[in-house]
Amino acid sequence: MAPEQIPASIPDRSASAATVQAAIDRVMMTYDLLATRTDDERVEARERVIDYLAKLHAAGETDLDRLTVCGLTYLRERDGSIDSVKAGFTGL
User: Fold this and answer.
1) Number of domains into which the chain is organized
2) Torsion sign, CA atoms 60, 25, 10, 46
3) Which of 5, 34, 84, 91 is the most buried (most CB within 10 A)?
């Protein structure tokens, strides 16, 4: 899967853009390991995480590890795989 271009909304397209691109690639690599998804689902997830990480970066987040964790958490919350009730946790 070829990496997509970083959105133009990222002001500094040098080191900051490289950080965001690295975070996007890490998120997608990890997300693909968690479950089998169709190509359409992967493309949609990648588009969503690109937008989300661009917003985080515009808000001032520049740490690669933090961007990666936030992006992965965002995708898992969106697809419901982080829901403890769906996973069978009852709290007992």
Assistant:
1) 1
2) negative
3) 34
Structure tokens at 86: 């769906």
Q: Can you give the residue range of the structural domain that contains 34?
A: 15-79
Instruction: Please check whether residue 1 lies inside any domain of the structure.
Output: no
Cβ burial of 26 (10 Å; 0-12, 13-18, 19+) is middle
pTM of the model: 0.74
- Please report where in the chains the tokens 């961007």 appear, as a residue: 67
pLDDT tens string, the chain, 92 residues long: the values are 444 555 555 444 567 889 999 999 999 999 999 888 899 999 999 999 999 999 999 999 999 999 999 999 999 988 876 666 666 666 66
Distance CA 82, CA 3 (A): 25
Q: Is residue 49 part of a domain?
A: yes
Asked if the structure places residue 90 within a domain, the reply is: no
Q: How far apart are CA 69 and CA 63, in angstroms?
A: 10
